[in-house]
Write a structure and sequence with these properties.
Blueprint: E1 7-11, H1 15-25, E2 31-35, H2 41-47, E3 52-56, H3 67-79, E4 84-90, H4 94-102, E5 107-111, H5 115-142, H6 154-166, E6 173-176, H7 183-192, E7 201-205, H8 211-219, E8 220-221, E9 233-234, H9 236-239, E10 244-248, H10 255-267, E11 269-271, E12 278-280, E13 284-289, H11 293-296, H12 304-310, E14 313-316, H13 327-341, E15 348-349, H14 351-359, H15 365-379, E16 384-385, H16 394-425, H17 430-437, H18 441-450
Parallel strand pairs: 1-2, 1-3, 3-4, 4-5, 6-13, 6-14, 7-10, 10-13, 15-16
Antiparallel strand pairs: 8-9, 11-12
């Protein structure tokens, strides 16, 4: 839907804000209705057919908790679930605004705003609303957020929904997930659906940067700043100015590097090596790591103040073994790609191949599945792929075997310790110990022999 055809309801107890919005929108939209009292929301929604609501976060100047805005947001979504809501917030209430996204808001604007920014936000939200309405059946069928992201499992639908919510904002995003789950695809999708989509998207594998290269690559340098600095060079932050900076493997950088990164994010400016001149930056930051958030919370490994800075909203990407409903969908997707690439357009899977794919745990996740399908199509002598044609990575298989062996050892240790505690509890009485453990005396004796107790 174009802005010109939209009906918009604005709720704010500041009459100056209402006047400014009404003057701005009266020539830009089909209809704009303003209201100072939020208690009128049910009546206005029942009376009018609005496409979008602009809703203030606070209606009681003596409280300013934002809970009033959250309450009325929930009421709007109850009364008219199809209506998009944009929250109006002060700069100090960004955390509340992010909470509003989780409660169903489409976006938020910070006051005072630039008129062009507000109009751009309204246009984007209306466009996304129309896209969701028109593509809803296709979305349920194909599960695409972008051409490269495939999934129709419940966990992936939740991720797609979250991307729709957060992409139009400038909130910093932390993407968590194992290697091979597609964290970079999610970062790309967020950028492509953001208001910065026509600006640069710069990806940096910060985990691969040495201490000596870290500052130069990210912040830039001046000619002569160090031995190999033969010319002035901007860093990745400046290259991403106006757009999105994606820092991959953020969990692998040192505490010293974290301190330098935090300074830049706090000050919103970089200083190239060899100069004292700070350069302001305007970026949307997305970070990713395969390290669980619980491990990042260890301050011996990662600064908590940096976690809070990069983690306004987090997205956890599930491993492929947790989204088995998507395996065949992904397999067919990769089969189409590689069948065309290797000129074997009529390739198809036999039931034995599909069954084998669904039973395998895929420790290498989507990346391993992709390489498995590509290898099978390259090696196929016919147009039919049998179960025997699917060969899984020996690297991942050895990792799986080792992890299974570790798990068996852990279980054995637990069983041994439990048996010893119960026997001590009953002062060596095997009959009583066996009864509490739910074992026969013979079975308990076998375990005593096994663990050399």
């Amino acid at each position: 839907m174009s802005l010109k055809k939209a009906s918009i309801l604005v709720i704010d107890d500041d009459t100056d804000v209402l006047t400014a919005v009404r003057l701005l929108l009266r020539t830009e939209v089909k209809e704009v209705v303003t209201e100072k009292n939020p208690e009128q929301i049910p009546f206005l929604l029942g009376k009018g057919d609005f496409d979008l609501v602009l809703l203030d976060m606070n209606f009681n100047a003596s409280i300013n908790t934002g809970n009033e805005g959250i309450y009325w947001l929930q009421r709007v979504k109850q009364l008219k679930p199809e209506v998009s809501v944009i929250m109006i917030t002060a700069y100090g209430d960004i955390d509340l605004a992010v909470r509003s996204l989780k409660e169903g808001a489409s976006d938020f604007v910070v006051k005072p705003w630039h008129n062009e920014k507000l109009l751009s936000t309204l246009t984007t939200v209306l466009k996304n609303r129309e896209s969701r309405n028109s593509n809803a059946p296709a979305r349920a069928k194909s599960g695409n957020v972008s051409n490269a992201m495939i999934g129709e499992s419940e966990v992936m639908e939740d991720i797609f929904h979250k991307i729709d919510k957060i992409a139009p904002t400038d909130a910093n995003i932390l993407i968590l997930g194992e290697n091979g789950t597609g964290k970079d695809l999610i970062a790309t999708a967020i950028h492509e659906q953001s208001l910065r989509a026509d600006k640069p998207f710069i990806k940096v594998d910060v985990g691969a940067l040495t201490e000596s290269l870290f500052e130069s690559e990210l912040f830039g340098h001046k000619k002569g700043a160090f031995t190999d600095a033969r010319e002035d060079r901007i860093g990745r932050f400046e290259a991403a100015n106006g757009g999105t900076l994606f820092l991959d493997e953020i969990g692998n950088i040192s505490l010293q590097q974290q301190a330098k990164l935090l300074t830049v994010l706090q000050n919103r400016q970089v200083t190239r090596l060899g100069t004292n001149q700070p350069v302001p930056i305007d970026i949307r930051l997305i970070c990713a790591t395969n390290i669980p958030l619980s491990e990042l919370a260890n301050e011996n490994r990662f600064r908590k103040d940096l976690i809070y800075r990069i983690n306004t909203v987090e997205i956890t990407v599930p491993p492929l073994r947790k989204r088995k409903d998507d395996i065949l969908l992904l397999a067919n997707h990769f089969a189409r790609i590689y069948a065309n690439k290797y000129l074997k357009p009529n390739i198809r899977f036999q039931p034995s191949a599909l069954e084998k794919l669904q039973q395998y745990p895929f420790p290498g996740n989507v990346r391993e599945l992709q390489y498995t399908i590509e290898r099978a199509i390259i090696m196929a002598d016919t147009e039919v792929i049998e179960g025997s044609d699917l060969l899984f990575s020996p690297i991942e298989s050895s990792v799986t075997a080792e992890s299974q062996e570790d798990e068996v050892m852990k279980l054995s240790t637990m069983e041994k310790n439990t048996i010893m505690k119960v026997i001590d509890k009953h002062n060596g009485n095997i009959s009583k110990a066996a009864k509490e453990l739910g074992l026969t005396r013979t079975a308990l004796y076998r375990r005593l022999s096994k663990y050399d107790i």
